[in-house]
TrEMBL record:
Domain of life assignment: Bacteria
Name of the featured protein: Late competence development ComFB family protein
InterPro entries: ComFB
Length: 142
């Protein structure tokens, strides 16, 4: 990744270059936590077994997050690693994933009226911050 020299730039140019550098990193991000995929599938499988009345009060994203916080991460950076880790997880961790997701559902059911503000995608948040900084800059200098 290219490092920019910000010393010779205006504030506006610095913000623009930092935004471009961040966007490039997001496009070239080439790693994945295999456990996220497996947990998402298990959350969906168990979600489909719930009554429609109960699903109105459960946020499946919260279930997945709670489960992921109790399971080991399995990061990969290649398709070969991904296939190997998925197979390993299915053979060795299948029962643990199922149990952990069930416990996560139980935790969310105990607190069914938990309202939360979802995280925005990092790029959206950064773009919004950059836009606000530019507006403040322009307002201050014009």
């Amino acid at each position: 990744m290219k490092n920019y020299n910000f010393e010779d730039c205006s504030i506006l140019q610095q913000i623009t270059k930092a935004d471009a550098q961040t966007r490039q990193w997001h496009r070239t991000k080439t790693h994945q936590n295999v456990m996220e995929v497996l947990v998402d599938k298990e959350v969906e499988r168990q979600w489909l077994q719930l009554s429609p009345r109960l699903t109105r009060y459960i946020n499946p994203i919260e279930v997945a997050v709670i489960a992921l916080n109790h399971l080991p991460p399995m990061y990969v950076s290649s398709e070969q690693e991904q296939r190997h880790q998925q197979l390993t997880a299915k053979v060795e961790l299948s029962e643990l994933i199922t149990t952990t997701v069930s416990q996560a559902f139980a935790a969310v059911v105990r607190d069914p009226i938990k309202f939360s503000n979802p995280l925005l995608h990092t790029e959206e948040t950064e773009s919004q911050a950059i836009q606000e900084a530019l507006q403040a800059f322009l307002h201050y200098h014009w």
